Amino acid sequence: MKNQLLVGGHVSIAGGYKEAPGRAAVIGGNALQMFSGSPRGWNFAKTTPEDAKAFREEAKKLGIEACYFHASYLVNLADDGPNGKHSVDALIAELEVAEQLGVRGSIIHLGSFKEEKKDAKDLMPTLFGKEDAPAYTKHERYPLLISNIKAILKKSPKDTLFIIEDMGMRKIGRSLNEIAQIVRDVDDPRVKVCLDTCHLHVAGYDLSTKKKLDDFLAMFDKNIGLDKLECFHFNDSRDEFGSLRDRHDNIGEGKVGKDVFKLILNHPKLKALPFLLEVPGFDDNGPDKKNINIVRSLAA
Ligand SMILES: [Zn+2]
After folding, report:
1. 262-294: pLDDT as tens digits
2. 243 C-alpha to ligand 1 centroid (Å)
3. Cα 61 to ligand 1 centre (Å)
4. How far apart are the CA of 2 and the centre of ligand 1, in A?
5. Which of 129, 214, 246, 285 is deepest in the core (most CB within 10 A)?
6. How far is the centre of ligand 1, averaged over its atoms, from the C-alpha of 13 (Å)?
7. Residues near 207 by Cβ (< 8 Å), separated by ≥ 6?
8. 9: three-class secondary structure by DSSP
């Protein structure tokens, strides 16, 4: 089983968590991502022992081996107002549900300091260069971001993961240098990283050749640690390299291109990770069998 490709998509929880594994299996996935509630509202995640058991049984029966939550889009852990407090409480509730469901953890957009107005070209990261992180890590609300993450870890189940997603836009986590600093400052084994191929592309990380991917991974290992890399979001991009926009495309249909996915899927250090799709779908219904089959064919 260890050599099996782990691939899946973001699926709906309409009808309850227990409905999600079936939706993941129908599109040919053996991994899944889901929200714990509405991603655009503050309704805290909750479950019952029966509901949690039903989810676990469905996932097991259908061979869904890796499950994740994607945290609400409202989360901003660098906000010093009520939104920041709601973010902390919502993530604690979500991780409690994760433990009951056997979900590994939450993939989280950390938020933003909401004041960047620079041009995209001024924000282009050098590969773990020293220039771009300080703008974030010296911000007056950076200590709040770190203390909020620590508070969530302290008050949530110890076997759940806090997974930081790299961002493609003017958000915290656009630069991997900055994620490296956050990981160091929080200093907790439960903090992991999810890399989104669309976000890396629009943030200006070039993975288009084996050499470039190897260099990227060597620097990731040195600055963050490859053991921290939990999973990939596998999305193509409608936008150009370095554009700092974030519009996902179907695998192989966008500006990232099949070659990059193929390199990642077949890289010895990456191929055992879960690959989670958040693509529009060929029928605009979200991740579908066709996209997953493309991923499988590129991994073969
Ligand atoms: Zn995300």
Report:
1. 999 999 999 999 999 999 999 999 999 999 999
2. 17
3. 27
4. 26
5. 246
6. 17
7. 197, 200, 201, 213, 216, 260, 263, 264
8. strand
CA dihedral 88, 90, 93, 96 (to 10 degrees): -70
Tokens of 213: 């991917």
Q: What are the structural domains of the chain? A: 6-299 (3.20.20.150)
* 70 phi/psi in degrees, rounded to 5: -105, 125
Q: pLDDT by residue (tens digit) across 105-124?
A: 999 999 988 755 554 444 54
Question: 281: closest CA among 256, 248, 240, 257?
Answer: 248
| C-alpha 82 – ligand 1 centre gap (Å) | 22
Cβ burial 133-168 (10 Å sphere, 16+ → b, else e): bebbbeeebbeebbebbbbbbeebeeebbbbbbbbb
Mean residue pLDDT across the chain: 91
Phi, psi of 153 (to 5 degrees): -65, -35
User: According to the model, what pLDDT value does residue 1 have?
Assistant: 44
What number is the average pLDDT over the span 22-49? 93
Q: How far is the CA of 70 from the centre of ligand 1 (A)?
A: 7
Tokens at residue 4, please?
Answer: 């099996």
Q: Which of 98-102, 225-229, 246-250 has the lowest mean pLDDT?
A: 246-250
Q: Which two tokens stand for residue 174?
A: 């656009």
Percent of the chain past pLDDT 90, that is, above it, reads 78
